[in-house]
Design a protein that fits this description.
- By secondary structure, the protein is of the alpha/beta class.
- The chain has helices spanning about 190-205, 250-255, 270, 280-295, 320-340, 355-360, 365-375, 400-410, 430-440, 460-475, 505-515; strands at about 15-20, 25-30, 65-70, 75-80, 85-90, 95-105, 110-120, 120-130, 135-145, 150-155, 160-170, 175-190, 205-215, 225-230, 235-240, 260-265, 295-305, 345-350, 380-385, 420, 425, 450-455, 480-485, 525, 530-540, 540-545, 555-560, 570-575.
- It has an 8-stranded parallel beta barrel with strand order 15-16-17-18-19-20-22-23, surrounded by 5 helices.
- About 40% of the residues are buried.
């Protein structure tokens, strides 16, 4: 329940302490609050978790708990609506604001939220945590004048001791920062895992009640039911290189694992048009035939790329009119060729970090999406960016900026399909930031895919990958995960899953363990006196084998599909005795 903040009125968000069973131990945890709103409101909502460990989170007790950070002047003010908020004025440096000292515990996850406003215009504002090891950005908001905008973020507690929360904005010229309803909520690692388990039960699995009956519709008790999952509704894939065409070891490792792929380079512009007007699709076509023969679905990556360094050599030096013509030729050559053969297109790659094509041709990136949609209405068209979930320092593609880009698309008249592509090139992950970023992006109500997941080579690489996968898969907004680990004999882009003999590396073991963990294999149960078996199953297709002496030939096989929205459904299997 979300309510506006009012002084002297008890109107807090209701929080429930929930019981989970995590790793065999009971865990009591406050529900994680996935809520975020993009609306700029007349008044701030109540602080999440009633403020958590933040002191005086609603600024109802003057400046108690708050101090000036830098040389800014801080004070409280009261709005026409009656809520009191904190103000930082006379700012001469980006980090001049207000601050509060908190105690951080090691191995604890922290989520942060606040409601922000600026005195005029709009500004990018980040919540920072000052620690003995340096200052950490935790979350961004685009604050505006005249209304309140929500900030949400998080950080890892990787030490124990005091830390300082403050806010920062590069817009310092006579801009005041205002804040209210500030929350800092800690969660233990067991509590965090309990939230993930709860999310799996709600979003990735459904309760299913199966009843076995004879040919007269009478229940059969004591029948043995064996349940085997044949496919998953959650798509997981991996990029591939052209070496898969000739390397049987690569084929034998890849084919049993993945039913979704993307070509590493073979569909990119520099590969398919190495010389102007000289198209060469032989590798892309051969790889397409390979995946089609094996019913592997394909993402199209990519049509054009805003990064000048990623253009064909000859295109980097084209004058504006000729570059625009070359782009038109690229679209007209590539998209019709693979129309109805790819499920996704990364249309104008990394157009938040780069804008070379846009600056040279004068065409807004929306133009390319309209063009791609007109050519292939059957594919889902994606924005595809790095940094949004990987790097809290990346202001260019922050979750708030990503939503602003989507809003720009709609404002400029693009009404076609659109997906949120998050590349996921990680170094050291900040798990609470990942979750908060996904919370924010999920408000767009668009498909969210992790398109190029890897972790750079470093100590704990496999552990980081396991933690990231656990967070991504369990977030209700994520609809698919693609690894970016195409095999190359000279080494992979950032993360290999195997050695050159296709023996799993530790990262490959993590991927195999993860994929086994989200599938059901070999579940066996027995029907009760009413012929029922109740269980919870991951969404997907299943083969159910029933064995009983009353059944002709002693066994019977049935295929079922378990999908979201079928909670507590009863699937009746009529069997001939």
């Amino acid at each position: 329940m979300n309510t506006f903040k009012r002084d002297n009125v008890l109107c807090h968000i209701l929080l429930y302490s929930c019981f989970f069973l995590c790793a065999g131990f009971p865990v009591y945890a406050i529900d994680y609050d996935y809520h975020f709103t993009t609306k700029c409101l007349e008044g701030p909502l109540n602080p999440q978790y009633s403020g958590g460990i933040a002191k005086n989170p609603e600024i109802n007790d003057g400046l108690n708990g708050w101090t000036s950070f830098g040389s800014s002047k801080i004070e409280t003010r009261t709005s026409k609506q009656g809520n009191t908020f904190i103000v930082a004025s006379h700012r001469t440096q980006p980090n001049h604001s207000f601050s509060q000292t908190i105690h951080v515990e090691k191995d604890t996850m922290y989520t942060i939220s606040a409601w922000l406003q600026v005195s005029h215009g709009k500004a990018d504002v980040v919540a920072m945590i000052r620690t003995p090891n340096g200052d950490i950005p935790t979350g961004w908001a685009i604050a505006k004048s005249g209304c309140w905008s929500m900030l949400k973020g998080g950080f890892n507690g990787n030490f124990s001791g005091p830390a300082e929360l403050y806010f920062e904005s590069k817009d310092i010229s006579s801009v005041e920062l205002w804040a209210d309803s500030i929350s800092i909520q800690p969660f233990t690692l067991l509590e965090w895992k309990a939230h993930q388990d709860q999310s799996i039960q709600k979003t990735r699995k459904s309760k299913v009640k199966l009843q076995v009956v004879d040919h007269q519709g009478q229940p059969i008790s004591n029948a043995t039911i064996m349940i085997k999952q044949t496919s998953s509704s959650f798509p997981i894939g991996n990029a591939m290189s052209y070496h898969i065409l000739t390397n049987t070891g690569y084929q034998d490792w890849y084919n049993p694992r993945f039913m979704l792929t993307v070509f590493e380079n073979e569909m990119k512009w520099w590969e398919t048009e190495p010389l102007p007007n000289k198209n060469d699709y032989h590798l892309a076509d051969a790889m397409l035939q390979y995946v089609q023969n094996r019913s592997i679905l394909l993402r199209g990556h990519n049509i054009v790329w805003e990064n000048r360094d990623m253009l064909p050599q000859w295109a980097k030096v084209l004058p504006r009119p000729l570059l625009a013509t070359a782009i038109e030729r690229r679209f007209n050559s590539l998209v019709p060729r693979y129309r109805d053969k790819v499920i996704h297109w990364d249309v104008d790659n990394e157009n938040m970090h780069f804008s070379y094509l846009e600056s040279q041709t004068g065409e807004n990136t929306v133009y390319y999406y309209k063009k791609a949609y007109d050519m292939d209405k059957g594919a889902l068209l994606f924005l595809n960016e790095w940094g949004t979930i990987e790097n809290p320092n990346d202001i260019v593609a922050s979750p708030a900026k990503y939503l602003a880009k989507i809003e720009e698309f709609r404002t400029l008249g693009y009404n076609g399909t659109l997906g949120i592509g998050l590349q996921g090139h990680f170094d050291t992950p900040t798990i609470p930031y990942i979750r908060s970023a996904l919370d924010i992006l999920a408000t767009a109500n668009l498909p969210i895919w992790i398109t190029e997941l890897d972790v750079s080579s470093r100590p704990l690489q496999a552990d980081y990958l396991r933690d990231i996968l656990g967070e991504l898969y369990t977030h209700p907004g994520v609809q698919g995960i693609m690894f970016w680990s195409p095999w190359q004999p000279q080494g992979c882009f950032k993360m290999c899953l195997t050695d050159n003999d296709f023996n799993n590396l530790p990262t490959g073991d993590v991927v195999d363990d993860f994929m086994r963990g989200i599938n059901h294999q070999g579940l066996i149960s027995t029907t009760n006196h009413d012929g029922y078996v109740e269980t919870s199953l991951y969404h997907g297709d299943y083969e159910v084998i029933i064995k009983h002496s009353a059944i002709k030939h002693q066994s019977f096989a049935h295929k079922i599909n378990v999908a979201k929205g079928k909670d507590s459904s009863t699937l009746i299997m009529k069997l001939s005795a």
